[in-house]
Structures are given as structure tokens and as C-alpha cells.
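Pipeline run #58 for the internal structure catalog. This entry was flagged by the ingest filter as a single-chain record with no existing model, so it goes straight to prediction. Upstream metadata was stripped on purpose; only the residue string is passed forward. Reviewer on rotation: M.T. Logging verbosity set to normal.
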Amino acid sequence: MTARNNKITWWTVGTAVVVLVLLYMFCPPVHKFGNKLLGRSEREYPKPDSVKVDEFEYGTPMDLQGEVIDVPRDSLLDSLMLADSLLIPVDGPLPTQVPGFGDGELPPMPDDTDLPIKIAPVKPENMPVGLEEIEHYASANTTVNSKLTVCRENYKKMHELYTEFVAHPTVEYKEIGVKRKKELLDQLSQLMKAAQSANDSNCEEETAALRREVNKMKF
């Protein structure tokens, strides 16, 4: 019975404390009474619609009297508004009808003779030569010869791409050209190493010529 009584007592005390705290927090009369017991003094701020309290948080309200200045309406803004509403006559001849526009028949459609003259794009001074203008040497080494054939075919495609890029320089051609140029230069580097290992001077010379022409392609 003693343990049970102690438990009931503690539950009663805890419930009473919680009730007092809630009343202190949410019940204004209990809140004021608790502040008086605790010796706390809270300053009351007036509500927006209250006129009973003369002391505000920013000081005592004062009646301000300002000087009324009478400004004439002849201002710059009125002048601009008046000018915008008036139509100022302009000296000169009246507009006339343009032949071929408005009333009447439309002008004839252009034919092949009326089209503007097409000017071919100017090629760069250091234009790379075609594959047929580079001397070819067949290598006795099978591995070197196969790599050389691949590089020739890729250079032919690269030259066609660069010619199209010079005629129509677009962003798409530029991105493709930069990527393929890097790949072809890597292939030529591998071909040069293979030719040096096989002591094939003719293949080294052709590889160097292909590399020089590829480096001329500026995307």
C-alpha cells in the first residue's frame, strides 16, 4: 500500500504541476498572478485599435503639423502630357502609293535570272591537299601496311569533312572535326611508331606528310 500511495501521490503532484504550467501559459489572469508572485513585470504594448494607452513602444505620440505648399500645375510633367496629346504638323509631301504593294497586282515571282549572284566561299591559304596528291608507298610489313591503309582512308574522309566545313562553317561540323582530327592524329602517331620499329623510311615519310596536312585543318 505504501508504494501504491507514493505512486498516486507523485502522479497527483505531476498532474498539478502540468496544469499550473498550462494555466500560466494560456490563461492571462493566471499568467498575471504568477508574474506578481514571481516579481516579474511585463510591459503591455497597445493593440492597433487601442487608444487608451498613451505610451507606445516608440514613445509618446505627437501631433505633427506640416506646412502646405501650393504648387502651380504648370509643371514639366503637365507640359509633356500636353505635348504628347497634340499632333504637330510635319512639312513635306504627302506619302504616295508604292508600286507593287497594296492595291493592284503583286510583282512577279523571281526566276533563275533574278536570283542574287552566289559567291563561292574563300578557301584558306593553307588548305590541305587531297589524298591523291600525297606520295604513297607500299610497306613490306603487313601490320604497318594495314595501319597505313586505315590512315589513308580516314584522311580521305577527314579532307572531305574539312572541305565541307570551310564551305559551311557550322558548330556541328566543328565538333565532329575536332573529334576526328584528334583520333586521326593518334592513329598517325601509332603508325609512325610501327614504321620506326620496322625501319620503313618510306612509310615514315608518308606518315609525316599526312600529319602535316592534318595539322593544317583548323576547326
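catalog note: The two ends are 98 Å apart (CA to CA).
catalog note: DSSP finds six helices and no strands in the chain.
status: ready for reviewer M.T.
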